Amino acid sequence: MTPGKAHLSAEQIRVLAARSDVMGAWLVLHCWGVITLAVAGFALWPNALTFLLAVVLIGSRQLGLAILMHEAAHNALFKTRAVNEFVGEWLCGRPILAELRSYRHYHLTHHRFTQTEKDPDLVLSSKFPTSHASLQRKFIRDLTGQTGIRQLLAQIIMSFRLAGDDDAIEAANQDAAQAFKARDLWKSLPVFLGVALLMSLVGEWWYGLAFWLLPYLTWFQLVLRVRNIAEHGATEQSEDPLRNVRTTQAGPIARALVAPYWVNYHLEHHMVMHVPCWRLPALHDMLCKAGLKERMNVASNYRHALAEAGW
């Protein structure tokens, strides 16, 4: 049962859940547009500040692509199913070495069993709260590329191990650490490398390394971890949809650098998972008007959410 049905009418949910091909196209174009402008900004004004800003913005939009693939996994990115599948796979997932189909299988299991023993994401959230020192070490590993390199190597090894082995693929589909990663890496790797090559062709030879691989190995890993912690870290291990997940309020800077495309409204997403991301603020308002505001697990900002996890 959709948890939101206990508090909202069928008509309210129907209106909120309406998809839009136009809005889906705008979100994907916006994501790739920010990436393009970030590279162009450095090309026009090459200095350390614009380089750092480009890496951070592109890493945040790589998370944005993951979020839009997540939308497609819920059939919420586009109204037209064929477009939803194609764009979610090839313009959102594959460029970041992800795979829509395997992610969908894994992620819907997470929704069905959120914060219970059957939740495949429980292994991630159960680690929190932890110590400040532990979180600091994790963040340093992310920003220095250690996490990204380790996971990329693990993904390559996994792809070799899974080749032609259906049983191993099924087991890998329950691996929280590799939840959205492509099992058949060799379909995604050409797309990932193609983006890097295009950057190098239109700019300097090293642009692909600096503005696609480097953000992927560093800032993307950091904000992906922050997202995971904020959503379920240090929340109740229960079946209460108002307490076993967290929404984090985000201002313009947080939305630009850490929480693109309304990903911060995670409690609302769990209440009605097929509502498109751009309608989640409206869903939040409806839940508050339904008298749930005081019961909802909402952090005032990402610093607050991380503090609850031990920062």
TrEMBL record:
Domain of life where this protein originates: Bacteria
One GO cellular component, as annotated: membrane
GO molecular function terms attached to this record: oxidoreductase activity, acting on paired donors, with oxidation of a pair of donors resulting in the reduction of molecular oxygen to two molecules of water
InterPro entries linked: FA_desaturase_dom, Fatty_acid_desaturase
Domain Fatty acid desaturase: 49-287
Biological processes annotated in GO: lipid biosynthetic process
Transmembrane segments: 24-45, 51-69, 191-214
Listed Pfam families: FA_desaturase
Keywords for the protein's UniProt record, in alphabetical order: Membrane, Transmembrane, Transmembrane helix
PANTHER family in the record: DELTA(5) FATTY ACID DESATURASE C-RELATED, FATTY ACID DESATURASE 2
Record's protein name: Fatty acid desaturase
